[in-house]
Amino acid sequence: MKSDVEIAQEAELEPISDIAEKIGLSKDDIEPRGNYEAKLSLDTIKEYKDEEHGNLILVTTMTPTRGGEGKTTTSIGLTQAFWKMGEKATLGIREPSIGPTMGIKGGAAGGGYSQVLPMEDINLHFTGDMHAIGIAHNLLSAMINNHMHRGNDMNLDTRKIVWPRVLDMNDRSLRNIVVGLGGTSDGMPNETSFGITASSEVMAILCLADGIEDLKERLSDIIIGYTYDREPVTAGEFGGVGAMATLLKHAIKPNLVQTIEGVPAFIHGGPFANIAHGTSSLISTKLGLSLSDYFVTEAGFGSDLGAEKFFNIVCREGDLEPDVAVMVATVRALKRQGGVSRKNLKDEDLEAMKKGLPNLDKHLKNIQMFGVPVVVAINRFPSDTQEEIDYLKDLCEKIEVPYAVTEVYQEGGEGGIGLAEEVKKLCDEKKSNFRPLYSLKEEPEEKIRDIATKIYGATDAIFTPQAKKDLKRIKQNGLDELPICMSKTHYSLSDDRKLRGRPRGFKVKVRKIRVNSGAGFLIPMAGDITTMPGLPSHPAAKDIDIDEDGKISGLF
């Protein structure tokens, strides 16, 4: 089969105005960026974003392997399948980050015959949103250091500045650095760090804000550090919030593109799923629901991270009620959770699949805990044998969950019709009885325990002395009613990436708790999660090239 970039380059794209027209938008509603990309105007956002009427479909997955289980590809293929059935559907996914694109994970534009186009642009810079978010974030960083250089009349403790810098590239050497060296004219020396742009609180804020005014209010509420008297200092006190919002003037507008089959797709925002809520923007979600009968979106990693945060944070912020969840399951993920090493995942092993089933079962129970109907999408890979696919179907029947085999990578929308039929059936039956996992009135440690015990399957959550100090400060600052955004590994239901299947008898250890007061959530840090990834021994960047005619090769 041809590579993703070869398939994408052979596709015939429709003018973006024609794509907009399919969901009832006129030329005046969009701001084209070339022939095949557009942003929606602020007036269009105001007109449509609160007129919800479509069905909300969330795509999530069981615990993924290192290469992912095709969640984005499944989301794209499902949306295309709806159109093949004569249903009006739109897609909402996250923007790729260049760091992972140049590293090991690859981009986030789908694959095969279920891609969003133009895939080269989408994976490389796109409409500049990542750049705008990074510049807005680093403006605040520069203003903080300038304030320190100019005398520090706010009494800011240099040891307690919690606002890092960001860069949209995997670069492990920037995880811990010292700035301000060189003498008195070069600023005040202090320790700081870099995270990848997707981990920025500005990214999380942009994806939860419902407009410019809300964006400015949230930016103002960012806590950048603490005084020597242990009082929080916010971004609003520096007076640069208006400038930050100005830099985000276009970034807050959703991007409209198309799938390889000409289906409208919103690609907007990309918060880091380990450290933030890992979903596309709330604005684009509400627009999609207003403009179509089915809106398909995804959440980062498995149900224990992306879906839990989507339900407890995003749905609360947007007053959303999901209608159906799609759980992507693969033969290789079951084998991995059953104890098979990465290098042997292509070998047939039915016994390992059976051992991995409790992992899938737990993820399904997690979705059901929120009162949302769920269907399994068995995403077939070329290395899967028919015996393995049949065995996975039998496993789904034993746990009495609806399922459909999908081959959207190979066949596009046609390969997802069975899944679309199952999803439509559940939507028509209106079985969703959505409810969040916890009350915001609960103490933060109780919310954390709810997630740890009910979603991860832990016996308890324990807190280090630092985490206990953080909880005390959070309460003193009146932030204890914020929702929880757990940070942990995505390779296990637990906080230990080595524990496979459905771990039992473990406790989740919370090391510290970060406060994202602008985005509006607390981040308990469980395990050792870095916000700045590193490059692998053979980065994807070594295989990417461009010829004199501008044709890109080796992207995927």
What does this structure look like?
The structure is a single chain. 35% of the residues lie in helices and 19% in strands. The chain has 556 residues and is α/β, with parallel strands linked by helices. It folds into three domains: 4-127 and 251-429, P-loop containing nucleotide triphosphate hydrolases (Rossmann fold); 129-247, Domain 2, N(10)-formyltetrahydrofolate synthetase (2-Layer Sandwich), CATH 3.30.1510.10; 444-526, Roll (Formyltetrahydrofolate synthetase, domain 3), CATH 3.10.410. Helix 4 (71-84) crosses helix 17, helix 13 packs across helix 14 and helix 14 (350-369) crosses helix 15 (386-398). The longest helix has 21 residues, at 129-149. It starts with a helix and ends with a strand. The mean pLDDT is 94.
